[in-house]
Amino acid sequence: MKGGTNTKFILFQPQLHRQPPALASRLWFLLLLLFTSFTFAFFILTLISTAVSPSASLASAASHPPIPQFVQDALLHYAAAVNSTSGGRFSASELAAVSAAIRRCRPGCNLLVFGLTHETLLYRALNSDGRTVFLDESEFLISRMEQQHHGIEAYDVQYTTKVDEMWDLLRLARESSDSDCRPVQNLLFSECRLGLNDLPNHIYDIDWDLILIDGPAGYSPAAPGRMSAIFTAAVLARSKKGGAASNPKTHVFVHDFDREVEKVCCDEYLCPDNLVGTVGRLGHFVIDTVEGSSSSSGFCSSSSSSMNPNNSSSPALLMSSL
């Protein structure tokens, strides 16, 4: 008989505490829900920040202080000196008239310019504390200007008119003067052939303080001419949303005012009674906002003539009625 005993050691290992399967599933679900919610919220915030309207983002970008008067004088001096060597550009006195109107519009103008020209950067600088928008028929010029000058606001325009169609277009506009071609309206919804209805939507919502017309081209019968630009400016000036509560007057400058198209269309839509002065080849009009959604008196007080619309296709008859 053996007296020895075999000693056995039993080791108790602590059991790892595991979450019940149901609790673990709920925990993973909560984590996934939090991650999804955070991702969705980030996406929405990003979308909102990038979808700010052009008017709001560009308005904030345009809030620069005005340039000092002596800098304005220097810019005008050198621009006039350069322009004096080339025909067709603004003269020193014409530039001074536009500059004075911008300077009176403080703080900052809402300035709409038809045409990208040699003076484009000058207008933008003179109105540094306002908002300046350019419209031009050349996509190439707009693209080049945007590449060379960051932040400039310019849009291309598709003109459907020709200089040699002016008389027919005026006759059609008179026939629709109480509907599509009325003086107070939102041109975005207009079918008037003289109205520009394909501009960016916010262009129609801005109360323009000053409109400068130096485009499109109008030196040949096949060129677009400035009939649509002058008609559109006349409607925008009369159709301000703010009315008399903001600035009830709009200054409209028309370059090449001595040419037939510009003179006839200005007499028809900007009106001789609103002409406050001419400097060189620049006509200066001041247009009052018209209250209400329509105007029964037409564009000008003298436009309600006894001319027979059926005979108005004759340039001589139409001219005599203007």
What does this structure look like?
Residues 292-322 are annotated as: Disordered. Its main location: Golgi. The chain is an alpha/beta fold and 322 residues long. The chain has helices at 21-50, 54-61, 69-83, 92-104, 120-126, 139-148, 166-175, 227-238, 260-270, 315-321; strands at 110-114, 131-136, 153-156, 210-213, 249-255, 275-279, 282-288. It has one domain (55-321): Rossmann fold (3-Layer(aba) Sandwich), CATH 3.40.50. Helix 8 (227-238) links the parallel strand 4 and strand 5. Helix 3 packs antiparallel against helix 4. The radius of gyration is 32 Å and the shape is globular.
Secondary-structure topology with pairs:
Layout (H helix, E strand, L loop, with lengths): L20 H30 L3 H8 L7 H15 L8 H13 L5 E5 L5 H7 L4 E6 L2 H10 L4 E4 L9 H10 L34 E4 L13 H12 L10 E7 L4 H11 L4 E5 L2 E7 L26 H7 L1
Parallel strand pairs: 1-2, 1-4, 2-3, 4-5
Antiparallel strand pairs: 5-7, 6-7
Helix pairs in contact: 3-4, 8-9
Protein name: Polysaccharide biosynthesis domain-containing protein
Membrane topology: Single-pass membrane protein
Main location: Golgi
How far apart, in Å, are the first and last alpha carbons? 143 Å
Reading off the top of the CATH hierarchy, the class is best stated as Alpha Beta
**What's the total count of β strands?**
7
Strand content: 5-15%
What is the averaged pLDDT score?
A: 81
State the CATH architecture: 3-Layer(aba) Sandwich
Largest sheet: 7 strands, mixed
Looking at how many chains there are and whether they match, the oligomeric state comes to single chain
Percent in helix: 25-40%
